[in-house]
Amino acid sequence: MKFIKYYLLLSLVFLMNFSAFSQTRKQLENQRKKYKSEILKLNKLLFNEVKKEKNALEALKDINRKIDVRNKLINTINLEAKLLTNEINGNERKITKLNKELKALKADYAEMIYKSYKSKSQQSRLMFLLSSQNFYQAYKRLEYTKQYTQFRKKQGEQIQVQANFIKKLNDSLFYQKKVKDTLILVEKNQKNEIESDKKNQESLISQIKKKEGKYKREIQRNAKEERKVAARIDKIIKEEIAKANRLALSKSKSKTNKTVVKKSSSFILTPEAKALAAKFELNKGKLPWPVKEGIVVRKFGKQPHPTFPGIIINGTGLHIVTSNGSNAKAIFKGEVLNILVGSGGTKNVLIRHGNYITSYNNLENSFVKKGDKIEVGQDIGRIFTDKVSKKTKLVFVLFKNTTRLNPASWILKR
Predict the structure, then answer these.
(1) Does 212-238+270-409 carry CATH code 3.30.70.330?
(2) Residue 408, C-beta contacts closer than 8 angstroms, at least 6 positions apart
(3) Engineering a disulfide at 328: which of 53, 258, 324, 360 sits with its beta carbon 3.0 to 4.6 angstroms away?
(4) Is the Cβ–Cβ distance between 271 and 289 less than 8 Å?
(5) What is the rounded distance in angstroms from the CA atom of residue 99 to the CA atom of residue 105?
(6) What's the CA angle centered on 191, arms 189 and 195, to 5 degrees?
(7) What is the CA 74 to chain-centroid distance, rounded?
(8) CA Rg, the chain, in Å?
(9) CATH 1.10.150 fits 2-210, yes or no
(10) Is 257 helix (H, G, I), strand (E, B) or coil?
(11) What is the pLDDT of residue 262?
């Protein structure tokens, strides 16, 4: 009985430890899969096409990104392998201890069987009962023989349970060793890939240093162009807000000062628009991405330039690279507020959701027109693919009235 309690306690402790390890290892396994998936996506979206003219600055940024993800993958593999080593060592100790216990249990059982065999004859059992001094003693002796038989049976079952448990531990140990061997192989492959990437990285850094002035001027020129585009969008949004407010007031026959309306930077919301804005807010962090698949290559807000220290770049929204031929998709239902045309002929579709506006910039063409009602996931337009870099990039911006918000806080995390 003591052995059974001990065995059950040992099993419980093992399962609890295994569960705790598994939970942590499961998280690491999911993280490893995520990084592997990200590397595949990077290769597909940033390195799949052969560029006609290689922009060393852009190429370096892409290489650095891939090296960073590979390093994260290797760190995750190392943590996972360390946990597996702890599990394997723990299992080996448990198996050694259980085998000793099983050996002792089998020896004890064999001795008991031998003694039982020597006194097994019906005659000796009958004599054992008949030699009782009274009926009560005979009854007790009969009960004893029954209990002895049950004990033998139970001990045999204990041996079987113990043997099965050891087999399961051995199977688990074998699987863990295979997983660890696979992880070591993956880590080795990733290190080889990083070495190859670093050679490309060094070559690109050398090219950039030779033309550093040229690249810095290019960055400043692009930043100036982006500021002009942002200012134009801000102006259009303010005009659209004023126009929408005038329309809302004319319908409500309000005597609000027209000058105040013209200078207003916030939408006057109808009950329907207010309800739509409330639903938009309730979906913060759960809104779908504006592309089927993509990688954010520039985040929202001010950030240091990835190559040149001291240069600050500003992201008005999210710059998302996606696959060639992809369409931009509406992240929420609303109405097309306006469609702007850029200097290079690319389009920017603005969709209003109450007092929120989503902007889908750098479209080759648009499938919608001003005033159209839009549903969640609806295709807005084909995203432009740069003929030189071969990158298909959407600039996705989010406003509340005239204030820019970080779209990453509103869409689902990938």
Answers:
(1) no
(2) 296, 299, 300, 318
(3) 360
(4) no
(5) 10
(6) 115
(7) 16
(8) 36
(9) no
(10) coil
(11) 52
